[in-house]
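Ticket #4471: structure output looks truncated?

Reporter: J.K.
Steps to reproduce: submitted the chain below (231 residues) through the standard prediction queue, then opened the result file.
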Amino acid sequence: MEFNRKGISEQVADSIKKKIQEGVYKVGEKIPGEREMGIELSVSRNTVREAYKILEAYGYITAKHGTGVFVASPEHQIQKMTEAFFVSTDQIKDFFSVRKILEEWTVKWSIENSDAEQFKELERIIKEANEVVNGTINYERLAQLDHEFHITLANNSKNVVLIRIMNYLIDLLSESRRTAIQIPGRALQSVKEHTKILEAMKQKDVALAQKYMIEHLDSVERSITENNSSN
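Returned output as attached by the reporter:
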């Protein structure tokens, strides 16, 4: 196999990743060791070692000491992606930029497709969050309620593609959400912001609900960014 001069180990990693994605190497299957893979791809053992490190960092493979290297499950890959996602402020910024676009439309479609019963479900989530914030604070439950609020909005949109994307994106944020919700004042702020969004939605005011959603996501993004920079 021929590689150009730019990042040979990265290209080897891409080549192996492609084989995993195409099913040449299957989940749970042991893949060739460094020496064998080096011979197969006509590269040095060190290059393969670096490629394996890259693939392990992204969750495509797992190295078991004394046993070998194995193709990881999709669940392991998502977990690794989640761990690696919130590394820099730039990534958080990109994440929220995409989320703002999606949640603007989520609010619009949710208003168009929701009935009184679905608004009641959002009210129930906010009511419980208020009780938790003003009682014995359970951060794990608050993080779950925050998740429920945004996923319920997505479900109410009735857009199957949006629902799947939002589930994926919000799962990526799970670790960061648990951290953010413990920032002093953040939980109460989120409950207040969710309340404003819902009130505008009940009035069928799309523009106002979208405005409140963007303000909410801006506020959460600032909390996470400021918390990360102070750690």
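Triage note (M.O.): checked the attachment and the full token line is present. Strands lie at 30-31, 61-64, 68-71.
Status: closed, working as intended.
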